[in-house]
Amino acid sequence: MLKSSIRVLVLEHFDQFQKTIGPILRQRPQWKVVGVVVEAADAVRLAKQLQPDLILLDIDLPRMNGVKAARRLRSAAPDSKMVFLGQESSIGVVREAFRLGASGYVIKEYAPSELVPAMETVLQGTEFIGSGVWGANLIAKKEPKPDHRLREILALHAFPSQPSALIAPNHEMQFYSDDTILLYRVVSFIAAALSAGNSAVVCATESLRDDLHRVLQAREPDMDDFMQSGRYLALDAADTVSAIMLGDSLNIAKFLDLLGGIISASAESGRRHLPRVALYQECAALLWTQGREEATIQVEQLFNKLAYEYDLDVLCGYSVTYFDAEEDSHLIQRICAEHSAVHWE
Predict the structure, then answer these.
(1) What is the pLDDT confidence band of residue 343, given thresholds at 50, 70 and 90?
(2) CB 67 within 8 A of CB 101
(3) What whole-number distance in Å separates Cα of residue 60 and Cα of residue 12?
(4) Of 145, 259, 273, 301, which has the most beta carbons under 10 Å away?
């Protein structure tokens, strides 16, 4: 049973609160807003002092993103429910939010229709994942346990003894169980290319692009120059997927034209006489989370085609939580078969 009065702490931009969030919260008179702050430090202080029933926090904060703020808020107010608001629909970001103790996640554009039911659901002790989140059924609050059957499947493809002639020699697949593992695998992949005078393209979720940029900035003193010259290009995987899909089908011509043009332009910005391009992509993984299995495999096949047409090294990232080893066994093998090597960490 819900309490007669629910105390809500809001971590959000003031103008956004006044325009959107405030009017939504006023739909329920029993919801009492005990504070509206824009700084995570202020939210932590108030949360510790007030122990609100629910904390509504914006993941797109100016100085500290909501995921990092959640760590401190969970420690300050362990019994408070948390609902995230964000523009990011990445399954990785949403999963991390739930792992840190959030009980709800709502995409901002859906807030007018989903925020009230999200808060009501969370206050009743049930999780809520907004309709704009891809692969919502794959999100869990706890870290997934490694699936031994999946390991067996991957082991068969880790070192192909006789790679198909259709598989590019440098088209590798990275399975990861932790986002930090993925981050530093991609950092090493991109940094090696830039240090060698080659170019690099990243097509990933916003959260990974931001983290990657932060780490590369710390490691590479010329990172700003790489970006200005076009030697390093970061693209949004969701936007790219939208551009290459025609309804529920992959637009192959659009894919080859769009990605081929990007790779060609990137190669021209390299400093070597015969520059290579290192490309990390999550387009295929996003298609998988959308239930578009055949399009996922097609994308991997097309990256093989591009790798042969250009001097291209490709790294593809997949979370192990995207798959059910038994139900998806055949499809996992088909995806793995499109890669020259498969790595598990």
Answers:
(1) confident
(2) no
(3) 9
(4) 259
CATH code for the domain in which residue 257 is found: 3.40.50
Token look-up 């011509």 returns: 253
**Domain with 61 in it: what CATH number?**
3.40.50.2300
Please choose, from the candidates 197, 203, 215, 183, the residue with its C-alpha nearest in 3D space to the C-alpha of residue 270: 197
Beta bridge partners of 54: 8, 81
- 111 with 235, same domain: the answer is no
Q: Are residues 233 and 322 in the same domain?
A: yes
Query: How far apart are the C-alpha atoms of 299 and 279, rounded to whole Å?
Result: 14
Band (pLDDT 50/70/90 cuts) for residue 275 is confident
Q: In whole angstroms, give the CA distance from residue 335 to residue 287.
A: 12
Say how many domains are in the chain.
Answer: 2
pTM here is 0.58
Residue 325 confidence (pLDDT) = 66
Question: With contact defined as beta carbons under 8 Å apart, do 82 and 54 qualify?
Answer: yes
Distance CA 128, CA 83 (A): 9
CA quadruple 322, 209, 65, 115: dihedral sign = negative
**CA dist., res. 168 & res. 301, Å (int):** 9
Task: For residue 1, tell me if it sits in a domain.
Answer: no
Instruction: Supply the DSSP symbol for 21.
Output: I
